[in-house]
Amino acid sequence: MSQRIDVKDLNIFYGDFRAVADIEMAVEPRSVTAFIGPSGCGKSTFLRTLNRMHEVIPGARVEGTVAMDGVDLYGNDIDPVAVRRQVGMVFQRPNPFPTMSIAENVLAGVRLNNRRISKGDAQDLVEASLRGANLWNEVKDRLDRPGSGLSGGQQQRLCIARAIAVKPQVLLMDEPCSALDPISTLAIEDLIAELKASYTIVIVTHNMQQAARVSDRTAFFNLAGTGQPGRLVEIDETSTIFSSPREQSTEDYISGRFG
Amino acid sequence: MTSTTSPPTAGRRSDGPPSRPAPALRRSGRVRDRGASRVFRWAATGAGALILVVLAAVAVFLVLRAWPALTTPAAELTEKITWLRGADSLAAFVGPLVFGTVLAAALALLIATPIALGIALFISHYAPRRLASGLGYLVDLLAAIPSVVYGLWGALVLAPLVQPVWAWLNRYLGWIPLFGGDVSPTARVILTVGLVLAVMLLPIITAVSREVFLQTPRLHEEAALALGATRWEMIRTAVLPFARSGIISAAMLGLGRALGETMAVLMILSPGFLYSFKLLVAGQQQTIAANIAAQFPEANPLGVSALIATGLALFVITLLVNMAARAIVARRKDFSGAN
Lengths: 259, 339
Hints:
The complex is a heterodimer.
Chain A: E1 5-14, E2 17-27, E3 32-36, H1 43-49, E4 60-68, E5 71-72, H2 80-86, E6 87-90, H3 102-112, H4 119-132, H5 136-139, H6 152-165, E7 170-174, H7 182-195, E8 200-204, H8 208-214, E9 217-223, E10 230-237, H9 238-243, H10 248-254
Parallel strand pairs in A: 2-10, 3-8, 3-9, 6-7, 7-8
Antiparallel strand pairs in A: 1-2, 1-4, 4-5, 9-10
Chain B: H1 2-5, H2 8-13, H3 29-32, H4 36-71, H5 74-80, H6 90-126, H7 129-142, H8 147-173, H9 190-214, H10 218-226, H11 231-260, H12 263-268, H13 288-295, H14 301-331
Helix pairs in contact in B: 4-14, 6-7, 6-9, 6-11, 6-14, 7-9, 8-9, 9-11, 10-11, 11-14, 13-14
Keywords (chain A): ATP-binding, Nucleotide-binding, Translocase, Transport
GO cellular component, one term (chain A): membrane
Protein name (chain A): Phosphate import ATP-binding protein PstB
């Protein structure tokens, strides 16, 4: 249920503007890879190319290859919709569907995939997914209430439950804790540590302590200046990045000298 | 205005009496609310109250002027008003008109809503941006056409055009009561009216629902897309549920227009005063508004009063329709996405 991602010569564009240049990296299966870097360096943009969400923005396009277990996600015969069913995503701000109940939210992805699912199976899946997101005990008595009535942290865990309900290969998280309080953040971080046993996880974060806490490998992105494309500076074991990075700019960034 | 109307306390406040060390922090409506904000408050309150006043004035007018007809005994009424069409009481006269009005409006809404939603979705989520703005402008232009022109067009162009279609419906689907009976050779029937009304409703329903569709939070659309939704699935899971109350509002705005539409109905429909579901037969139904316009010039005082009574009925229908729409919108408020 988890796969390796190999990125090669990836250039990402918004119209004519090259936002990210020449990315080359490998994301290991069953591990947490964190992307850090200053605002505007393209880490979120890059994350969104891993499930082809980048191209939903008008004018946005990608050159290069992103291979999941050897299959290029940008190949001619690849359906972006199918990619997104394999690569789940959790967004910066919790976004449960406000018109659906908690249970319906969890099942939203499964229902989309046009799978007929029996009532019993649906209940089991809701429970398993919510347990997987450490939310079951808090919401089991109000599964038919709207998801928007939960707290921010609970909503975010509901979104994680929704994402893992479709059993993706990879889970992308775009600053999943930046809108949350410290307690909720801790809950999400614990959850990430549990989820990595079964999923390949890529997380974008502005919080370097968070990257140090949750990730196995860390990638540092930087840009030369405004109007310049963002680049991958280096990627290594998290302990190495935070103790003895190869690049000076990485050390400057993690020691708080800029960004 | 401020200086003349502000209460004395406000005037003293600017001097800053030493006995009150922090006057600005004191919670007093009089002090906080002055100058432009006071003007604005009264203007807004006044505008809000004006709606109630106008509504009440219309209701009072309708009841007062309808009173003679409402209180006159049925026998006298039928004797003095020649065009009661054999109805033996006011209620028997109003009933078929209410029926015809609701039928025409319902037909129009039934035809217009799906098409309008389709156009709105195309403009908001499918069309390339430049095409979308042009198309939106064209649809808005439909609203600028006077209803008398729609009436002319319906009677002179559309009716002959759809007559063969109606005849076909009658021949092959005549076993459905709606399409049964002797099909009208001129197509001046309620279904043609419904069609023309539907065209008149298109711009308003399209414009309102398009705005609502465009307001769907990007976040929810992306949530659906990231789960592996196709564009249509994304619209079904994120856009339509979010826009639900807006769609109902749009339809109700359209229904309001359809219920009150006069000229187009008057010019197209061959009227009748029956409770009839025969959509393709002439001389079956009539609407309240068209009937008032048709009878008003020749009505005697009691006749005018009777017509105004029908107008009162239309007023009540419209109110009920709007209240029903509100109830529908409120029923699933928790899930509306407004919170």
